[in-house]
Design goal:
Strand order of the largest sheet: 2-1-3-4-5-9-7
Largest sheet: 7 strands, mixed
Helix content: 25-40%
CATH class: Alpha Beta
Order of helices and strands: EHEHEHHEHEEEEHE
Oligomer: single chain
Distance between the termini: 28 Å
Strand content: 15-25%
């Protein structure tokens, strides 16, 4: 199976590429640059691929986001969703942001300053716009959004275990390694269970 991974040079993307190779797939790591928002470039990059993963972000962390300031493109994830959908991949798996999940009270994590920094709210809203764009899709692309919870950590080994949840933050929220998030992504490519929907992913 041939798999294109946008954001393949990032922390989560590298784990996805490694897991794909571990399973014997041909994985193509693509950078996090502007190509993911350019429909023509995306179409060219994923031509012939059996699946596409988007683990891309315009900034690698809070400090880089702070440096971007007003230069941050709040339409980034919506534009990326448009480009990815336009390429009509056989299977599309997108890695989401936990701030778009719901709290126990029913609100969004991104709206709770005690749970999510207010300074990063524009970034979370951009993620939410990308999710909304996927949900509004009428092309019929077989997509899934896997949203790791706040327990996501680069630490920890690959255990091969994880839990898929719903739209809300789980309680408790066991830690999930990047390697095990990658396991969830590849499982959804090889044996899709989430069809045109979003679920949370956390550890066991």
């Amino acid at each position: 199976m041939s798999i294109a991974v946008f954001g393949g040079n990032g922390r989560v993307g590298r784990a996805v590429v490694a897991e794909a190779v571990r399973r014997g797939h041909a994985a193509v790591a693509l950078g996090r640059g502007a190509e993911v928002t350019d429909a023509a470039r995306v179409r060219e990059a994923v031509a012939g691929c059996d699946a596409v993963v988007s683990a891309v972000t315009p900034a690698s962390g809070p400090q880089e986001l702070a440096r971007l300031g007003d230069a941050f493109d709040g339409r980034f994830f919506a534009r990326a969703a448009d480009a990815l959908l336009a390429a009509r991949p056989p299977r599309l798996v997108v890695v989401g942001l936990f701030a778009t999940l719901r709290t126990a009270a029913g609100g969004l994590v991104l709206d709770d300053p005690a749970a999510f920094p207010a300074a990063l709210r524009p970034f979370a809203l951009a993620h939410l716009a990308g999710l909304d764009r996927l949900r509004a899709d009428t092309t019929g692309v077989d997509w899934a959004v896997l949203t790791p919870t706040a327990g996501l950590t680069g630490e920890g080994p690959r255990t091969g275990r994880y839990t898929l949840g719903g739209e809300s933050v789980p309680d408790p929220d066991p830690p999930l390694s990047h390697a095990d998030l990658a396991v969830a992504v590849l499982d959804e490519i090889e044996d899709p269970g989430v069809r045109r929907g979003r679920v949370s992913v956390h550890g066991r």
